[in-house]
Every structure is written in C-alpha cells, then in structure tokens.
C-alpha cells in the first residue's frame, strides 16, 4: 500500500470524529505505561537476567513453570496496583457517550492489564489475553482470577532484581484448577510468544475492522504482529486512521494523522464531545 504524509490537524480529525458511526481504537503498551505498567521493552526488557520474550513462551512454561509463574506474579502485582489514566478514562467516557447516540466504540487492545475495563470500557477485544485470567492445562477451564498473590506459594515472590534466586516452587504448589476432580496446572490465559491469537477474538477483530469508519492507533509501537497491521489494513480501505504516540512508529507513514505526545494529554481533547453531538 502507498505511504502518505500524516498530519497533526486536530480540527480535521475532529471533523472525521463527528461523522464516524463505528470507531475502532487500537491500543498498546504505551497507554498502560502512562499508568506505570512497564512495557517490558528498553530498560524494562529484562526480569532478573532473562528477557521477557524468553519467559513468555510455552517452552519456558513447560521447562520451568515456577520461574514463569514468578514472572507473572510480578506482572500481576504491578497491574493490580495501577489505576487507569486520562487516556483510559477518555476512551471509556467516549464509548458511553456515543452509545447513547447509536454510535459504537470498540477497543482492540494488546494490553493484558484490564485497565480499559477498570476505566469503564465495555466493548473490549483483548487480542493477547489477560493477566487476570487463568487457563487449566488439563480441563481447559478459563477463569477470572484477581487474587494477589495468586496462590500462597507465590506470596512475596517475583522480585525482578537480577540477584534474586529462583524460588523453585514444586509444581503441585503452583496455581491449580479448583474444578472438581481436576486440580490441573494453571497457566496465564495469554498469548505467549510463538502462539497464535485466539481465532474467535481474531474473527471479531476482523469484523470490527471491516465496519469501522474511523480508527485510532494509540500507544502502540506497531512492531508486534499481527496487531501491527490492523491500522494499516484499515487505512488501505480509505478509512481515516489517527496515530497517538510519544514518537513516530514504523507504520506512521500509512496513517492520515499523527499526534505526538503522551496519550493522556493528546487523547482526551480528541475524543471530547464535539459541538455537533446532541446532548441526551
């Protein structure tokens, strides 16, 4: 597809916003970073001496579920102690307001911390799963789990410092399924590196991409596939796509607009009530 030169004309974006009936908002780790959730890139790329992408794999979990669960206990603890920021709240408020007008907003997120839901967003498609869900490796049951720590053996575990030794928790003391007659080992219900996205979620995402008439790409580096192509694919249909990020990304040139700066600063005025909206 041909590249275009994105602009930062907020009045033009707001005109597109005022006409849009189905808005898709694609969010990435940059949104959560403004709430203090590490992006696990750059200076936060390592936990202890391991790269996060080397821990978040089915092979790593199979080899050393204790270490991987320590890593995820750390991530869960971080997420459970953070609050939605101005960007999360602006998206949720916009969705609620536009719903009353017969318009729709869907959040297609790579984030796994559930801060969008905490902010009040209702229509959220989590393409990488959730830190707050577990999946049983024996019976397949998926359950919401916000306990902290997730099990007693992980209490006080998961410190990220490189000099902290592995806890070597016995596998029978790791999170287990509480369904009757199961007791199978639980894993985070997330898409590990090397795994494919949930086909049901992907189908829903594809349908939203087909009907949206305005797209916002917010706080994502646009380098993790397949999510990195969601915005460009929507743009290829001629739909206006606006990127909100602290810097340009490899996909910026494909978008109509680019608004640079913290999402918590740039997004609220972009999604605020337009003068053309009726007040119910």
What does this structure look like?
The chain has two domains: 165 residues, TPP-binding domain (Rossmann fold), CATH 3.40.50; 104 residues, SIR2/SIRT2 'Small Domain', CATH 3.30.1600. The strands form three sheets. Strands 5-4-1-9-10-11 form a six-stranded parallel sheet, sandwiched between helices. It has a three-stranded antiparallel sheet with strand order 7-6-8. The protein has a two-stranded antiparallel ribbon with strand order 2-3. It has ten helices and eleven strands. It is an alpha/beta fold. Helix 6 packs parallel to helix 10. The chain is elongated and about 60 Å long. Belongs to the sirtuin family. Class III subfamily.
Note the main attributes of this structure.
SIR2/SIRT2 'Small Domain'; 10 helices; 280 residues; 11 strands; Rossmann fold; alpha/beta; six-stranded parallel sheet; elongated
């Amino acid at each position: 597809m041909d590249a275009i030169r994105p602009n930062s004309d907020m009045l033009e974006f707001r005109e597109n916003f005022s006409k849009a009936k189905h808005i898709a908002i694609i969010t990435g780790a940059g949104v959560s970073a403004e709430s203090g959730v590490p992006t696990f890139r750059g200076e936060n790329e390592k936990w202890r001496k391991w790269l996060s992408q080397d821990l978040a794999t089915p092979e790593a979990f199979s080899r050393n579920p204790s270490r991987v669960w320590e890593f995820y206990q750390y991530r869960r603890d971080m997420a459970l102690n953070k609050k939605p920021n101005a960007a999360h709240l602006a998206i949720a408020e916009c969705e609620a307001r536009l719903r009353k007008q017969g318009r729709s907003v869907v959040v297609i997120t790579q984030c796994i911390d559930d801060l969008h839901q905490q902010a009040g967003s209702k229509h959220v498609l989590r393409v990488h799963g959730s830190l707050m869900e577990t999946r049983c490796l024996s019976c397949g049951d998926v359950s919401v789990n916000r306990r902290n720590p997730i099990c007693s053996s992980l209490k006080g575990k998961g410190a990220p410092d490189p000099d902290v030794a592995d806890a070597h928790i016995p596998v029978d003391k790791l999170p287990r399924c509480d369904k009757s007659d199961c007791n199978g080992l639980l894993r985070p219900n997330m898409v590990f590196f090397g795994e494919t996205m949930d086909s049901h979620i992907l189908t829903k995402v594809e349908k939203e991409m087909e009907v949206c008439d305005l797209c916002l790409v917010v706080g994502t580096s646009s380098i993790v596939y397949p999510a990195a192509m969601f915005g460009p694919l929507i743009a290829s249909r001629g739909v206006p796509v606006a990127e909100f990020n602290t810097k340009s990304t490899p996909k910026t040139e494909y978008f109509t607009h680019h608004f640079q700066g913290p999402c918590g600063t740039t997004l609220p005025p972009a999604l605020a009530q337009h003068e053309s909206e009726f007040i119910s």
